[in-house]
Structure formats: structure tokens, C-alpha cells
Amino acid sequence: LLPLLLALNEGQHLSIAQEYANQRDVFRPAILRHLQIVLLAVVPALLIGLLLAWRMNRTRNLQQALFPVLNVIQTIPSIALFGLLMAPLAWIALQWPALSRAGIGGVGIAPAVLALLMYALLPIARSALAGLEQVPAEAVNAVRAMGMSSRQILWEVELPLALPALLIGLRTAVVQTTGLAAVCALVGAGGLGQIMFDGLFSAANELVILGVIPIVLLAMLADTAFKLLDSLFWTSP
């Protein structure tokens, strides 16, 4: 909306539009960086969460041991979790310089992505497990009798049937991660949070709003996209 207003020479009197004009060079890279952080956190969390749910569906003891750990992680404030991760990651970067050159370190995108990944694991693993538990045992036994391997059963039978439940947790994880990614600017990860905190530290309310509005819009777009995707499953024959 702001780029359109500026292109039409409308809204130039608005202070937020003027702030956007001043931040035009960093605004687009900040959005791309924000999306990069979200993707780097959610995609591995999805793969790990699916694997954990698959194992927990077959090993009840693992379920009883793992969910308390994931629940505890959810209770840790994001700033505290960043702090807990900074020292180990800095040590790893010191021991393996190649990882440091690849961007792994105590500050930057590494602690941000790792923390967000840990937060995203609980909703994804829980919803994936709920979906797998709803898969009829008769369907699994039938395809196993046809000679399918465990991997084939997972990808061709269990996951498709568990997908509607999985999307609920994935939707929660994506929206949650989109919002939490703003805090990652405090550890040097950049993104839209950098614009927001620059405004806070300089007492520029318009700059804060300029950073907050895209985050809200991205979260709303993600939520709407998953709602539409979920409706397709319920309306499909």
C-alpha cells in the first residue's frame, strides 16, 4: 500500500509514508530477510517434527519423554533462549572455522533460526502425531499386506491421511514464527524487526509502525493461506 501511495504521489504528507521513503533501500531486503528466517526455521522443523511424530506413533515411551521437553521449550522467553544458544554456537564456530565462515556463530541468523525451529517443533509434532493416530489401522495393514515398506506406507498412506491435522499445527508454527522472527533482530539476524527496534531505540513511532505492519500482514497472509488450504481438504470429495 505504501509503495502504491508514493507512486501516485498520494499520502506524501503522512509521516509514515515519509519514513518509508527514507527507509526504501532497506525495506525490501528486510522483508526478504524476514521471510528467509521463517523458511529456514519452519522447513527443518517440519521435517524433524514429522520424523519425531512418526517415531512417537510407534514408541509410546518416546512420546512421554519428548513432549515434556518441547513444552518446557515453549515456556522459555525468546530472549532467554537466544542467550542460551549464543555461547554454544560461538564455541562451535571457534572450534570449526568453516562453520563460522558459513555464518554459524553466537550472533546473527544461526541462534535466531535455531531458537525459532525449537519453538515450531511442538505444534508441528503434536498435530502430526494426532493425524497419524487417526489413520485407520485397517488401511495400514492392507497396504502392508500388499508388500509396501514402512517408508512407502508413511509417504503414500499415512501422511496423506494425516495431512489435514498436520496443517493445523503447521499453520500455528508459521504464524508464530513470523511474529517471533521480529525479535531475532536483537541477536543481529536482521529482518523487519531491525526496522522496528531502530524505531524503538530512536523513539520514532512511525518507524516502529513501518516495521510492525508488514509483520502483521505476513502473519495474516500465512493464516489466510492455510485456512484456504484447509478448506480444500474439507470440501474435496
Sequence of secondary-structure elements: HHHHHHHHHHH
Radius of gyration: 21 Å
| Spans of at least 5 consecutive residues with low confidence | 4-13
Strand content: under 5%
Helix content, binned percent = over 70%
Question: Mean pLDDT, as a whole number?
Answer: 85
Number of strands: 0
> Could you tell me how far the N terminus lies from the C terminus, measured between alpha carbons in angstroms?
38 Å
Structural class label: mainly alpha
What is the makeup of the main sheet? none
Q: Tell the overall outline.
A: globular
Instruction: Supply the number of helical segments.
Output: 11
In short:
By secondary structure, the chain is an all-alpha fold. The chain has helices at about 1-5, 15-20, 25-60, 60-75, 80-95, 95-100, 110-135, 135-145, 150-180, 190-200, 205-235. It is built from 11 helices and no strands.
Describe the model:
Helix 3 packs across helix 7 and helix 10 packs antiparallel against helix 11. About 4% of the residues have low confidence. The two termini are 38 Å apart. This protein has 11 helices and no strands. The chain is mostly helical and 237 residues long.
